[in-house]
Structure formats: structure tokens, C-alpha cells
Write a structure and sequence with these properties.
Elements: E1 16-21, E2 28-33, E3 36-42, H1 49-64, E4 73-77, H2 83-100, E5 103-107, H3 109-117, E6 120-130, E7 133-141, E8 147-149, E9 154-156, H4 158-164, E10 169-174, H5 176-180, H6 182-187, E11 192-195, H7 203-215, H8 234-238
Parallel strand pairs: 1-4, 4-5, 6-10, 10-11
Antiparallel strand pairs: 1-2, 2-3, 6-7, 7-8, 7-9
Helix pairs in contact: 1-2, 3-7
Amino acid sequence: MCCGLTRSTSKPLIPQILSVETATLAGSVALSRGDERIAALAGDSGVSHSNTLLSDIDRVLSEAQVDLADVDLFAVATGPGSFTGLRIGIATVKGLAVTLDRQTAGVPTLHAVALAGGPSPRSVALLPAGRGEVFAQLFSVTKEGLVTELDKATHISPSNLLEKYSSLESVLWCGEGAIANKALLQNSASQEGRLAPAVTNLAIYVAKLAFMKFREQQLVHPDALQAIYVRPSDAELKV
């Protein structure tokens, strides 16, 4: 763990954070100062992150009139999510952070999804995992933005998802996986819950959680960033 960022000033530093989220097909990039958004850009789900991520970062920095060298902290969604997308995002953040000698914050994707859904004592964050299945995890989220894990991230079918959380009341279903399974979640007689609004820029919430890590002195060296896959890749499953 790192103790945080330091600069030659007597005032506490509020870091300028560049956050990247490539766990989802569209992905997103954001620039924040502390937990205040400065600029943000949602990606294109029809184009590979490998073709757009660096140009999206450049567009966000240009909009904010900020040089890359002025970024204090690089944050990235570490998964679960798209295997290829995660590798691209993490590798990009590692490269930029090493070049500029900056610390990093790795943020689990489902934590950002839960935070984006809003406060709730029982939030189930869902992301598509391919083949109709989802990545899922249960959290509590406070009004102050504290996200607490109530179980472990899992790879599960929607039907098994409903069975797993059937005993819970007033669940807040969050994320792209919830939107994709809206009819199933709303029509299930065993579930009493509501659907969080769709969020187009998850990187904004990655930045908010990264700022919390900064305040709690939980930043890491770029080499320590690792992807959270939850399940094996299709290639590994075929071996």
C-alpha cells in the first residue's frame, strides 16, 4: 500500500484523477478533481477499446484543458467484465502511470456499478457475462458513498440469481445486467425490488471510489494492478 500522493505544498492535495472503465462494451473515461467531475466521455460499444481508448483520454483531457502530466492519480475498473477490455484498460493505465511516475487505484467494476445505483441497504450489482449470464454481487451503499460487500462476486444465470437472492426484500438491481434482465426481475413474484436508472459513464464512479482509496491511503504501484475475472475465459474453458 502507498501512503498517497505528495507535492511541495503545505495544503492537503486534492488529486486530479483520470479514470478508465473498459470492463463494459462501451466503456468510459472521466477526469475528476477529488470526487468532483471535470469532464467525461462515454465510449462506443461497436468499436474496440484498443482503437478508441487513447483518443478518448485525449478528448477528455482536451475538453478539460488539462495536460496528461497534470494528472495526479490514475484509476481503472479491474473487473469483472470483458476479458479483452479489462486487459486493454489496465495495460493502458499501467503504461501511463509508470511513464509519469504516478500511483494508481484499482476499483472492482461491481463496486462502481453499486455506487452508481445510489444508496440502498441491499444493492445487487449486475454486469452481462456473455451467453445470457451475469456477474453479480450484493452490496450496501450509504448516502456518503461507502460501498460494502455483503457477499462475493459470482458468475451466475439470471434464474439462479433470483433464487440466490429470493429471501431479500427491497433489493435495488443495478447495472447493465439488470437492464438486460429487466423483464425477468420485474415479473418475478419472489422479488420485491426496484431497478436503478441506466448509467452511461461508469468511469465517474470509478473515480469517486479511487478518491476514497486516496483518502484511506490505499493507492498502489501500477505493477500491483490485477484484473478480477471471476470466471475462466472461453479459451481456458475449452482447454
